[in-house]
Amino acid sequence: MGGGAAGFFGAIACAEANPGQPVLLLEKTGKLLGKVRASGGGRCNVTHACDSAAQLVAHYPRGGKALKGAFQRFGVADTVAWFAQRGVALKAEADGRMFPTTDSSETIARALEDAARRAGVQIFTNTAVEEIAPLPGGGFQLQLAGTGRPGPTLAVARLLVATGGQPKSAQYDWLRPLGHAVAEPVPSLFTFNVPESPLRELPGVSVPRARVTLAGEKLHYEGPLLVTHWGVSGPAVLKLSAWGARRLSELNYTGTALINWLPDHTDDTLRPWLHQFRQENGRKGIAANPQLGLPQRLWRTLAEQAGIGPDLRWSDLPAKAHNRLLELLLRTPLAVRGKTTYKEEFVTCGGIALADIDLQTMQSRHVPGLHFAGEVLDIDGITGGFNFQAAWTTGFLAGQAMAKSGNVAAASLAGAGA
Fold first, then answer.
1. CATH for 5-186+344-404, among 3.50.50.60, 3.40.50.150, 3.40.50.300, 3.40.50.720?
2. Burial class (CB in 10 A: 0-12, 13-18, 19+), 337
3. Where would I find the RsdA/BaiN/AoA(So)-like insert domain in this sequence (predicted)?
């Protein structure tokens, strides 16, 4: 069951390793590979340039260490080679993110769909599974959804569940009867809403590196930061939200985010720098002359908030305003009151507990022949291609294991359940 990245990869791997045997891919909706097409602003961030499994696992707030062995069997280099063998070249950008050289997610979606067709995978859309029933002699009976009444049943010998992450705990209820523990789901990779933001006049302003800290918590992250109409976004915020997903949920997505616009500086280094600059540039206006590489609009806004008028010169700067400016450069407070997630790129913290899964084959430890892959598992990475890499890895290992089990019909299921 899998109309997304993990489901397609698993179905292809199974069909290619066991030619001639029926492999079905069932998708609840009428849309295939929606997240693949939407990701990376329509470019598809396929993976991340990591040289080793040890380097790769450091980017997963949940599940990374457990997957180290899996990444050693199918990692970044394997992903690059897999797509290259199917005519798709990937490129690495300066920050390590890897995209198709076409800069189009359609390239990746078409490669997956073409590979599935060539391998003989039978794809069924608008086919929802409401119940999985293990059969006494092995295999499964799938109860398909009907219109106003139960639909038909389908018998398969092996089954891969790759239904993606689900935002509500109840959406895992149809899997719970199979005996697997579920780590309660909460959102990951989201932006901060700041309704009363002092930066609300600066949408579109970005800095290449800032440190975002959640006041009173041991949560912080550095990276590019973007000011938006509703608050703040960018990798620094998204990655902080991933590492702090459970704690932020407990806080009901409220708190104070402190923005250090100059993460190379502390009070002890910035204060003497400002003092020296003031001594050497006393006649210069403050607000109109941005310093320290900050965007002009941001610098002017911080100066205004420090009580610095548009015509004030450095030589006339009062000590109180000087201290306030330093404080804002290192710790601009933003009152976070909620989050924003994007439906097509939604990532879940939580899912089927990894302790219940044999991570060499992605097979259930409770139900032989039942495999899991992708975000339905309690695995999630930070932004940068890591969630797709987990999908490719777990899907490939599951598909290969299903094929090695013998010449039997298999199904890959996505979008199933309530």
1. 3.50.50.60
2. middle
3. 186-347
pTM of the model: 0.92
> Kindly report the CA angle at 312 between 310 and 315, in degrees rounded to 5?
155
Residues making up the chain, counted from first to last: 418
pLDDT (tens, 9 = 90+) of the chain, 418 residues, equals 668 999 999 999 999 999 999 999 999 999 999 999 999 889 999 999 999 999 999 999 999 999 999 999 999 999 999 999 999 999 999 999 999 999 999 999 999 999 999 999 999 999 999 999 999 999 999 999 987 777 899 999 999 999 999 989 999 999 999 999 999 999 999 999 999 999 999 999 999 999 999 999 999 999 999 999 999 999 999 999 999 999 999 999 999 999 999 999 999 999 999 999 999 999 999 999 999 999 999 999 999 999 999 999 999 999 999 999 999 999 999 999 999 987 655 789 999 999 999 999 999 999 999 999 999 999 999 999 999 999 999 999 999 999 997 644 556 665 444 3
Tokens found for residue 75:
């990692």
Element (DSSP H or E) covering residue 206 = strand 206-214
Q: How far apart are CA 213 and CA 236, in angstroms?
A: 10
Q: What are phi and psi of 82, to 5 degrees?
A: -60, -50
For the chain, give every residue range classified as CATH 3.50.50.60.
5-186+344-404
Greatest Cα-to-Cα distance within the chain, rounded to the nearest angstrom: 87
Give every CB contact of residue 279 below 8 A, 6+ residues apart in sequence: none
